[in-house]
Amino acid sequence: MLAADRVIDMGPGPGERGGEMVFDGTPADLRNADTLTGAYLGARKQIGMGLKRLVSDNTPRMILEGATQHNLKNVSIELPLQRLVCITGVSGSGKSTLIQDVLAPALMRHFGKATEAPGAHDRLLGAEQLSDVVFVDQSPIGKTARSNPASYVGAWDAVREIFATHPTSKQRSYTASKFSFNSGDGRCPSCGGSGFEHVEMQFLSDVYLRCPDCDGKRYWPEILEIKIERGGRALSAFDVLELTVSEAAKLFANDRDVIRAIQPIIDVGLEYVKLGQPVPTLSGGESQRLKLAGFLAEAARDAAKSKQRLATKGTLFLFDEPTTGLHFEDISKLMRALRKLLDVGHSLGGD
């Protein structure tokens, strides 16, 4: 940005809070502009790094020895666990080879997961100190329009329970499964609860057409007759799915299970997406952050059950360029989310 001749800053926020040109001028003037970008460039805001966890002789470690895949020249590394470790270097220096081609497949094979053969290396030590390994990249989460942020983090399970307790639901003997768009007989049979008809194109990108039977609302009309009162509004299941995450957080502020499930989405900076937005429409960066939100939601559920930090073993999360294309503010939110994983005993690494 500082090397640009002219800068156009869009905002002032993400999603519905965006769409405006908040600055148009030179980089020097942007430093003093009253925008989020200007606040970071002018050093009025900074990305908080939080409490640094020092690496000592007692810190548990995992060791990868003798990596020689592609251009790696007999590389051996010690990765301190329960810490945030960054693998850096110029493009083509071997970062992706080390993490994606050697370390991640070797760990996945250790835990019995399906994976390609690990890149050439001598041995891997210390993997028994972990309970699992997860590689978080920017690949799409799924190809079905039924999958959305609410279902991915488990928030829709809590919402369905609320609908099932409605007096009319009890009168009609509707259980929580009636309000599922993945199964059950409450969903539209034509689109299978996705709200869209998937048309496969042989030489072009697939097309999603709004379902003509339910008009994209996923459910039978009698299911949509059940409406819950939140924040002075009467909401059907479809209405809830049309809420952005930030709107849902306000309306369901007193519903503990719902808030606990959607809070991770807010933590990773995706509060502007709709609860029912099909995951195939998310960008690569958004998909990666939603995956992270899913792990944060799982960690929150585990913490709620155990009421304590992980005793010994945690999961190693490997990230593929998690800050690529993100704004300073988004990176700040991402760092706070990563620290939550560290706080419960997990290990983080990435390039």
Q: Name the overall outline.
A: globular
According to CATH, the homologous superfamily of the largest domain is P-loop containing nucleotide triphosphate hydrolases
Task: Provide the residue-averaged pLDDT.
Answer: 92
Instruction: Output the CATH class name of the largest domain.
Output: Alpha Beta
Runs with pLDDT <50, length 5+? none
- Percent helix range: 25-40%
CATH topology of the largest domain: Rossmann fold
Structural category is alpha/beta
The largest sheet has its strands arranged as 5-13-12-7
Helix-strand sequence? EEHHEEEHEEHHHEEHEEHHHHEHE
Q: Tell me the span between the first and last alpha carbons.
A: 23 Å
Main beta sheet? 4 strands, parallel
Rg, alpha carbons: 23 Å
Approximately how much beta-strand content do the residues carry? 15-25%
Characterise the protein shown here.
By secondary structure, this protein is of the alpha/beta class. It has three domains: 35 residues, no CATH class; 149 residues, P-loop containing nucleotide triphosphate hydrolases (Rossmann fold, 3-Layer(aba) Sandwich); 132 residues, Up-down Bundle (ABC transporter ATPase like fold), CATH 1.20.1580. Helix content is 32%, strand content 17%. It has twelve helices and 13 strands. The strands form five sheets. The protein has a four-stranded parallel sheet, with helices on both faces. Strands 4-3-6 form a three-stranded antiparallel sheet, with helices on one face.
